[in-house]
Amino acid sequence: MRISDRYIGKQVLLGTLYAVLVLGMVLVLGNLFKQIQPLLVDMKAPLELVIRIVINVLPLSLMYTIPWGFLSAVLMVFGRLSSNQEITSFRVAGLSLVRLAMPVFVIGAALSALSLWLNVSVVPHSRATMFQLIYDQASRDPKSLLKPGVVNGENFNQDSGSVPKLLIEGRTGDWVEGFHLYLSPKADSENRDTTYVHATRAAISVDKTKRQLVLKLEDAYAESRNEKGEVTMFLASVAEPVVFDLRDPKKPKANSMSNEQIRREIETNPLLPENQRLKLHTEIVTRYSFSMACFAFAFVAVPLGLQSRRRDSSMGLVYSLLIGAGYFLLTMLADQFKSDSGATMMLWAPNAACVLIGLFLFRRARFK
């Protein structure tokens, strides 16, 4: 190993570690504290539960902060080396730009392998564990899920054909004031009826055995509209209890399933809707494409870092923000495609673009 390899590799590694820590603090912890505040204050979750949720959230941030941190480090390191004329010195000594960048490609490949392990094994397990922890807390105190002024529904099941949305205006002990319930049909449901229920107030009780939230409505008004537009209404001074089952996390979302679980679901479920099948397939492709981000960034970051050499130390940061934001925005467009091939091409397009642009910039930089 050349001295130049150790010199450049050490700076890139230390810069990546520093950037990951900074990005984690700025981009993750601020949002994380906003999410755990309801657990501590509204749901009165024990501190042990909150700490376990924080531990499971941290791996989720690494799938973004590792590539972005590596990109920022390479841009800053090569920008500084170029501004100090160290790149010129290395090239006068007979080292080509590609040879100087070799430590960057090696580190990028190693970080891509680390990202692959995180995205395929660690992150899905962390998501599944986090959902289970929140479900366990909700099972202990379902009433804590109803917060005045906040629409809730993702934690409840109403029936197999509708999606509930709940809103309360106020809460006093076991009573809520201004209860609103909207039931909309699921995308794959044959029943297309929509229902709206309002009650001046409602009594809350919990069936801990069945893990259900039970509300007895007072001064209730309900309106149901079928697919033909026909409306049915009723008024009641006291309505029968409305029961909500807690959503069972045993049927996980795609992003909390392992690759093996996703493939098994696709192969063994012939009744799976096409949009759900596409979502499952896209989740697998996303994990692999995101994992290659570090290696792809290595191609474009080195020559761009050389271009930011003229005393403007902020250019490396600007480049990293633009490239990182563009990369992740392009991957989001995959949701707009209705075929596996289209979604797959869009997910891999940012990596291919980074490599091709990087090769072009490397060729230009060789003659400067």
UniProtKB/TrEMBL annotation:
Transmembrane annotation, as ranges: 12-33, 53-79, 100-120, 288-306, 318-337, 343-362
A GO biological-process term: lipopolysaccharide transport
Annotated Gene Ontology cellular component terms: ATP-binding cassette (ABC) transporter complex
Lineage summary: Bacteria, Pseudomonadati, Verrucomicrobiota, Verrucomicrobiia, Verrucomicrobiales
Subcellular localization(s) per the UniProt record: Cell membrane
Annotated InterPro entries: LptG/LptF_permease
Pfam families: LptF_LptG
Keyword RNA-binding on entry: no
Protein keywords: Cell membrane, Membrane, Transmembrane, Transmembrane helix
Keyword hit for NADP: no
Membrane topology: Multi-pass membrane protein
UniProt-recorded name of the protein: LptF/LptG family permease
Principal location class: membrane
